[in-house]
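D-3-phosphoglycerate dehydrogenase, Cupriavidus cauae. Tokens?
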Amino acid sequence: MTKVMLLENIHESASERLAEAGLQVDRRAGALAGGELHEVLAANELIGIRSATHLHAEDIRHAANLLSIGCFCIGTSQVDLAAATAAGIPVFNAPFSNTRSVAELVVSEAVMLLRRIPEKNTLAHAGKWAKGAAGAFEARGKTLAIVGYGNIGSQVGVLAEAMGMRVVYYDVQPRLSLGSAKAAGSLADAVAHADVVTLHVPATPRTRNMIDATVLAAFKRGAMLINASRGSVVDIAALAQALRDGRVGGAAIDVFPSEPKSNKDAFVSELQNLPNVLLTPHIGGSTEEAQQNIGVEVAAKLVNYLTTGATIGAVNFPEVDPGPVDCPARLLNVHGNAPGALAALNTLLAREGINIAGQHLETRGTTGYVVTDLDKAPSAELEQALAALPGVLRLRVLRRDEAGAAS
Ligand code: NAI
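Tokens:
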């Protein structure tokens, strides 16, 4: 029976999905390292981790039987992806599962800032009654500028329009406008007339401090800024100054250039104690639903790879989606991307009189992945000979009768 170990309290939705597929699932609450991790890597065909378990090249050397790694989170920087690729191991993650959670938070923060709730809330807790309409606005009819109109940015636009906001966005790539959203030609154009600006770009050299004193000076006076993307995108000192000057009327910031490593470490920011500022501890995507979705999404990718060889969504691998096994056997061959690999494979198959019903090769960098559907299953000897071909990193045979049961 195929064995999978889930570390770091991965959501139960993953165990359920994996068990349904016939796998033996073991779970541990914490992260692992060193000898304990190596034992787990050697004893399981699949491993599920979150961000606290680090899989270095040295760890991956202990993973001779490991077929795939599931990162039950968004990022994959905790895995040495080059080492995993060189070992023929695809790595899967869940890049979209928490996007709705971020979008909902952002839209609700826009309302909170426009109504100046952060400062009214602070005053109420301090026993002060600040009833009044001055400086409080509806979201309806206001302009929201979305910087980065990808998975999250575009969802924010849809939710904001549902409340009657006008949406303008700026992206470096041409994007399909959803609803009535309008593309701006530049960042300056996007922010110039916005009442609220929200950032949804990745951390790249180009987005580092993209919201600096110059861009903040181009904001409409009193506009709000929301950042639930990456901490490097906003020059925090410039934002603090713009808030003190009243150039920016409020801010909701979820991500910071430097964040505490754990909940036990202190959090310090220049934005603390400024009026109309909401500070949250990088929880934009942290909801029960997102965790559940992540469990289902990554488990499904692992099961799909296990039972069909599909690598769609792998972060480090050539992507192939061959569909269910509907021939007697399917051969999955991962090899160093060198000339002659396919010819050598096909020659050995022909020598045993096996006909190729279908074949799909994809390459990525130094890795080649070829999926071959066969009209009969190879003998054990042929399987050994195929695995021993020069440059072969991994070889696996899926037999039609077994593929559904993941055994
Ligand atoms: P995505 O990749 O779907 O979208 C990013 C968009 O930004 C793309 O359309 C891209 O073309 C655009 N872009 C890239 N460079 C740009 C530039 N210089 N100027 C304008 N547009 C640019 O990413 P997704 O999933 O929407 O995530 C957006 C951000 O949110 C990422 O930084 C991600 O790390 C962060 N995030 C934060 C979470 C939190 O807990 N606060 C949770 C999930 C994601």
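Residues 74, 98-99, 102, 147-153, 170-173, 175, 200-204, 206-207, 228-230, 254-255, 282, 284-285 surround NAI (CB under 6 Å).
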